[in-house]
TrEMBL record:
Protein name in the entry: Alpha-glucosidase
GO molecular function list: alpha-amylase activity
Pfam family, one: Alpha-amylase
Keyword line: Glycosidase, Hydrolase
GO terms, biological process: oligosaccharide catabolic process
InterPro entries according to UniProt: GH, GH13_cat_dom, Glyco_hydro_b, O16G_dom_2
Domain of life: Bacteria
Family label: Belongs to the glycosyl hydrolase 13 family.
Length: 544
């Protein structure tokens, strides 16, 4: 079985917001099935489905109450099987979110664990006694605000929840928990699933001694919108025991030819370090992504430093770079200060993400150039946004429904009022309008993805960066005796880059670029991709 995932492109579907088939205002599995042709038309390799399993939906499915059933909100196991069958027929792999660092407090496991201190699952969650004064056992904080500890009156103990109080953390120090999680994974793989996106992969283990976290030294006394960001999470997550557990996961996955894994690493201090550690060699995860490219930074230094850091030291790990997902502000909005024309920024973002070394994650709507939706406070559903508004408006703005047909109510997503609104700025970028426009962002994505597949340098080739000043990012992708030189102007101002005197020509996917001799003129957010003989061709740029 080939390593299809290495250099592959994964398209994330957020089921609530992709397509509603039954008129309840919420997307579902039959709706996704109806729209699989759109995904296949892009030329991606795989679909990542955000959570579908049964859940009270306190955190939009990231609070699981039954790991082995589909939530009726989205359909049935039969619908899931049909989706797998059609996706495979279209040449698409399918992976699914596996949310196992925590469960819902409505999961039967937690109900049993909370009943007493001596039942069969008493140690399946992280329980601890109060301090003598009744306060929590340490200073750990929840990502969603407040203490990470919640008092349970039946057990007369605190339980750990890194997220909502209704999302108690499983105790991975208990081998029985690990066995149960592996059983869950086998259930879905046996139904034909091609692997998993492992949610919060560095949160599985906690410090068994429950030592308090130190303050974050780099904060320099400036309060954060969320107090969670004021701690260095040395003991509450990213523990060394995680590596041996991930080896067990990989060993199980290897029993299913072609199955893959991509881990989400949420650690602002050690993201790249953990990505490397969790994917090194052949015995751990296949891929990981962190939040390094999911923030506001848009500089040549930032992109270069992160890619070089990952591949330094002869590392054998593999990244899955992403610019967008269901947890962050869409790149068209957060990188808008570096552009004057949204369509130029959308094309540059696509070309940059699809020419770096690594696999690629795309998020629904990214292929349309959707900006962040402007959600009013009264429209919010995200518990994070509700708690921290307006300093943190939460994640609803990137989770709004896909705009399919501009003339239909709710842009063709549903016949009923959707769970989140469809904003006019998104209707203007609908799929039907972009399908009809050969120069649209959507059709650029299709062209770029097809072109990428025909150039092995971009799928598995090496990467070497040129020494250029801001705002120019330039690198060489190499495989065999042919290279590709990629040059990006990460700004809204035109500039000219010097090339060495090797006969070069622009690939047709280049944008806002003109080549005259050794001078490469790049307009705002312009970029050029140029074939070159192996090792030949150089790029230089210094601002005037």
């Amino acid at each position: 079985m080939t390593e299809w995932w290495r250099g592959g492109v994964i398209y994330q579907v957020y089921p609530r917001s992709f397509q509603d088939s039954n008129g309840d205002g919420v997307g579902d599995l039959p709706g996704i099935i109806d729209r699989l042709d759109h995904i296949a038309s892009l030329g991606v390799d795989c679909i990542w489905l955000s959570p579908l399993t049964r859940s009270p939906q306190a955190d939009m499915g990231y609070d699981v109450s039954d790991y082995m059933s589909v939530d009726p909100l989205f359909g049935s196991l039969q619908d899931f099987d049909q989706l797998i069958e059609k996706a495979h027929a279209l040449g698409l792999k399918v992976i699914m979110d596996q949310v196992v660092s925590h469960t819902s407090d409505q999961h039967p496991w937690f109900g049993e664990s909370a009943f007493s201190r001596d039942n069969a699952k008493a140690d399946w969650y992280v329980w601890a006694d109060a301090k003598p004064d009744g306060s929590p056992p340490n200073n750990w904080l929840s990502v969603f605000g407040g203490s990470a500890w919640e008092w349970h009156t039946a057990r007369k103990q605190y339980y750990l929840h890194n997220f909502l109080t209704s999302q108690p953390d499983l105790n991975f120090h208990n081998p029985a928990v690990q066995d149960a999680v592996l059983e869950v994974m086998r259930f879905w793989l046996d139904r034909g699933l091609d692997g998993f996106r492992l949610d919060t992969v560095n949160y599985y283990f906690h410090d068994a001694q429950l030592r308090s976290n130190p303050p974050l030294k780099s904060l320099k006394g400036v309060p954060a919108t969320n107090p969670y960001d004021m701690q260095s999470h040395k003991y509450s997550k990213s523990q060394p025991e995680n590596v041996d557990w991930l080896k067990k996961v990989r060993k199980m996955l290897d029993q299913y030819p072609g199955a893959t894994s991509v881990g989400e690493v949420g650690d602002d201090e050690r993201g790249l370090e953990l990505m490397k550690a969790y994917t090194s060699g052949k015995s751990l995860l296949h891929m990981c992504y962190s939040f390094d490219f999911l923030g506001p930074k848009f500089t040549a230094k930032h992109f270069r430093s992160k890619v070089e850091a990952f591949f330094s030291g002869g590392e054998t790990g593999w990244p899955c770079w992403s610019f967008s997902n269901h947890d962050v502000i869409r790149p068209m909005t957060r990188w808008a200060p570096y552009s004057t024309t949204p369509s130029d920024l959308a094309r540059q973002s696509a070309a940059l993400g699809l020419t770096l070394k690594g696999s690629v994650g795309l998020y629904q709507g990214e292929e349309l150039g959707l900006p962040e939706a402007d959600i009013l406070y009264e429209e919010l559903t995200d518990p994070r946004g509700i708690r921290f508004w307006p300093g943190d408006k939460g994640r609803d703005g990137c989770r709004t429904p896909m705009p399919w047909q501009h003339e239909l109510a709710y842009a063709g997503f549903s016949t009923a009022k959707p769970w989140l609104p469809v904003k006019p700025a998104h209707v203007a970028l609908s799929v039907d309008q972009q399908n009809a426009d050969p120069n649209s962002i959507l059709n650029f994505y299709r062209t770029l993805l097809a072109w990428r597949k025909s150039h092995p340098q971009l799928v598995t080739g090496d990467i070497t960066f040129f020494n250029t000043s801001e705002p120019v990012l330039a690198y060489r992708r190499s495989a065999g005796n042919k290279d590709l030189i990629c040059v990006f102007n990460l700004s809204a101002e035109p500039l000219t880059v010097k090339l060495s005197k090797v006969e070069l020509e622009l690939e047709p996917v280049s944008h806002n670029a003109t080549l005259e001799g050794s001078s490469l003129a790049l307009g705002p957010n312009g970029f050029a991709i140029l074939p070159a003989p192996a090792g030949e061709g150089k790029v230089s740029y210094k601002p005037v």
